[in-house]
Sequence to fold (126 residues):
Amino acid sequence: MTERMFSRAGLVLRQRTKLERAMNVLRIASAAIAAAIVCCAHAAEQPPSRTLATTCTGCHGTHGRSTGAMPSIASLPRKQLAEQMRAFRDGRRDATVMQQIANGYSDAQIDALAEHFARQQRGAAR
Ligand code: HEC
Fold:
């Protein structure tokens, strides 16, 4: 009789720890999901400047170092690049293509691009 009671108690205890373990797994999983949501909602708001810059490097060369007819934009001072982008966007500077391209960027994105290219070194394209 007592033996049966003990084994029943053991079973209940074991089931409880199983439940607790499952709860812990759930807690960790929901924390991971929350972290992923924070991470990716942020990424959607503002892509990293390197991602933005890939649009430009097709014409202006890898890292903004041009080998062809396009002007190099690597290491242009941050303010100058941002000002040129805004001039294209606002139609203050004539352009063949840059007006349309600049039109697609917000002020914050232009600043991020300017920051990115200012950090790139000029010199031979690699
Ligand atoms: C389709 C090719 C193309 C793409 C893509 C492109 N550009 Fe340009 N860019 C040009 C051309 C061509 C010029 C010369 C002005 C013109 O005719 O539009 C220029 C000029 C510029 C200038 C002026 C450089 C100077 O010496 O005054 C800046 C700054 C610039 N681009 C930045 C960018 C940035 C930043 C991006 C990406 C968001 C970008 N460009 C994407 C073709 C391109």
The mean pLDDT is 84. The two ends are 83 Å apart (CA to CA). The chain has five helices and no strands. Residues 2-45 form the longest helix (44 residues).
